[in-house]
C-alpha cells in the first residue's frame, strides 16, 4: 500500500521528448529504484509500454501514470511519474499530461540532439509552467558509434544544453526564464545511457574526479563499470527530489497561468483544507464506465462524494485509486497536490469542485490538427449504432479525433492528425465492430477571399474575409459570427445553423474558414429564413482552395541521405534546412497530400535508417495549375476503394 506523506515529500514528474530518444527506457531505472521492477530488468523491460501494440512497434502510444515510493537521504518520497509518447500523432495526449505534473524530465538523444518534438513539447511544458530538467541520453553512442574523443563529446553536450536553454528563454514566463534555465553546475542536467544503466550529474562527476576521458577508457574494457559507479536510478532519484518542484512550490508559480476566473487561495497554496477542486486530464472507457486520470489542486477528494462542474451539474465520484501503470490501488481519500484515478462520469478538460466556484482551469494547448481522414462503414449494417457508440467514446478519449457523417454516402469520416494515428483508431474500432475502411485522405478547406453582402427578405447577411490570404502559411482561425436584431435566446441556435452550413463550402464542398459573418434580422425571423438567405449568399461567395501542409523533420544516417532527398523531391517537398553530420537532419514542408506513405517509404529506401516526424503547420493556397488535380481528387476521395480493415 502506498502511504500518503506530507505534501513536501511528493513529486509529480513527467518524462517527455522526441520519439525514440529513450524516455521509457530511462523511466525503467527510476522504477527499479522504487522497487517496482528489478534492477536487472531496468533498461530492457520498457515497463510502461505495456500495450501489446506498443511492444510490437517499439514506440509509446499513450501516457501512463505510475505512483511509487523511493528513499532518498533517509526520507521516503511519493512519486507520481507520467511517461509520455514522443510520436507527434499522440501529441494531444502529451498536452493533457503536462497539466498533471510540476516538472518534466526532457530526454534528448546525444547523437540526434534537440529535434522537432523536443522543441514542441518543451514549448508545451513551459506553457503549462512545469520546470524542465534535461537528461542527455544515449551518450554511449558518442563513444561506440561515433568514436568521439572527450573534447568532441564535451562540445556536443554543451551545444545541446545551449539550444535547450535558448528554447527555455523563448517560451518560459518572464519571471521564471533565468531560474529555469538548466545548468550542469546546478544539477539540472543528467548525462546518461539508459540502455547501459548509468547516469551522472556534473557534481557527482566532480566529486569523484571523473572525466569524459575516463568514460571513454571504461568503454574500452567493460562499460558495466560505469553503471557500478553511477547507477542511473539513484542519480534520477536524487535529481527528482532535489530539483523537481514539490506541489506547494509549484502551484504558487503555476496556478495564475492555468486558471481563469475567480481564484481561491487554497489553489495557490495547494492546501488540503480549502474547497476541493480537481482537474480531469484523461478519460478512458472501462466496461461501460469512465475512468479518469486527474489531479487535486485544492482540498481533499474522497470516495462517494458529489462534485460540481461549472454549469452546476453534479457527478458522484465512485471509486478512487492510486495509479500504478496497468494496475490500480483503491484508496479512500487523497489531498491537494496528488494525481489520482477515479470512476466518475467526467470529460478531459473538466474542472470539478465540491462547493460551486466562479472559475475553471483553462484548456491545454494542442499542437496538432486533424487533417487526414478515413471513411469507414460497418461490415454489417446492423452494427451501425454500436459503431456510433464506439466512436463517441474514442472522441472523448482522444483529443485529436474529429468525426463527421457524410451526408452523401452515410460513411463515417474519422479525422486524425497522421497515418499512424488513424491506423490505430481504426484498429481499435475494428476490434469491436468490423469495418471497411478507406485509405487516408486529405481534408482541404476553402478560404474566403472577397466580401459579399445580400438582403434576402428580412435577413441581411455580410460575409467578409478575416485572414490575409497573401501569407505563405495560413493558420486555422475559427469563423466569427455576429448576429444582430434577434433575441439572445435565439442567437445560439442561429449561430449553430451558420457554423454547420459553413462546413460545406461553395467551391468544393469543404469547410469554409477565415470568414466574418454578420447577420441582421428581424426579431421574429425563423431558422428556415436564415438558412435560405445563407444558402443564397454562399452561391455568390468566392473562396480559394487551401491545402494542409506538414513540417517534416527527418533524421537519417548520412550514407542514405541521397535516397531520402530523391524521395522528397519526387513528392515536391521543400527542404529548408539540411544538417550533415554522422546523422543528418532535414527539415522542411510537404503537402499532406504528397506525404501519404512517406514515413514507411523512407524506412524502405534507407533500410530502416531514416525516421520522419510529420507535424501540421498550416494551410497553403492551391495554385491554379494544381486546382484541377485537387478537384478530381476530392470528387473521388471516399468512393469505390473501400478495403477490408484489420
Ligand atoms: N544506444 C542506446 N540506445 C538506447 C538508450 N536508451 C534507449 N535506447 C534505445 O532506444 C530505443 C527507444 O527507446 P524508448 O525508451 O522506447 O524510447 P522512447 O523515447 O520512450 O520512445 P517513444 O516513447 O516511442 O517516443 C530502444 O531501442 C532503446 O533500447 C541509450 O542510452 N543508448
Ligand atoms: Mg516511450
SSE layout and pairing:
Blueprint: E1 10-17, H1 23-33, H2 52-57, E2 64-72, E3 75-83, H3 91-98, E4 103-109, H4 116-127, E5 131-137, H5 139-144, H6 150-171, H7 177-180, E6 189-193, E7 198-200, H8 202-208, H9 212-220, H10 224-229, H11 232-243, H12 247-258, E8 259-261, H13 265-269, E9 277-286, E10 289-298, E11 300-302, E12 306-308, E13 314-316, E14 319-324, E15 327-330, E16 333-335, E17 339-343, E18 351-353, E19 359-361, E20 372-378, H14 384-397, E21 402-405, E22 412-416, H15 419-432, E23 435-437, E24 441-442, E25 445-448, E26 452-456, E27 459-465, E28 480-484, H16 488-501, E29 512-513, E30 515-520, H17 527-540, E31 543-557, H18 561-570, E32 574-579, E33 583-591, H19 592-595, H20 598-605, E34 610-621, H21 624-636, E35 643-644
Parallel strand pairs: 1-3, 1-4, 4-5, 5-6, 25-29, 28-30
Antiparallel strand pairs: 2-3, 6-7, 8-19, 9-10, 9-18, 10-17, 11-16, 12-13, 14-15, 14-17, 20-22, 20-23, 20-24, 21-22, 23-35, 25-31, 26-27, 27-30, 31-33, 31-34, 32-33
Helix pairs in contact: 1-11, 4-6, 16-17, 18-20
Bound molecules: guanosine-5'-triphosphate and magnesium ion.
Kindly describe this structure.
Helix 1 (23-33) crosses helix 11. The chain has a seven-stranded mixed sheet with strand order 2-3-1-4-5-6-7, sandwiched between helices. The protein folds into five domains: 9-247, P-loop containing nucleotide triphosphate hydrolases (Rossmann fold, 3-Layer(aba) Sandwich); 265-361, Elongation Factor Tu (Ef-tu), domain 3 (Beta Barrel), CATH 2.40.30.10; 372-442, 2-Layer Sandwich (Alpha-Beta Plaits); 445-541, Ribosomal Protein S5, domain 2 (2-Layer Sandwich); 546-621, 2-Layer Sandwich (Alpha-Beta Plaits). The protein has 646 residues and is α+β, with helices and mostly antiparallel strands. The longest helix is centred in the first third of the chain and has 22 residues, at 150-171. The protein is built from 21 helices and 35 strands. The protein binds guanosine-5'-triphosphate and magnesium ion.
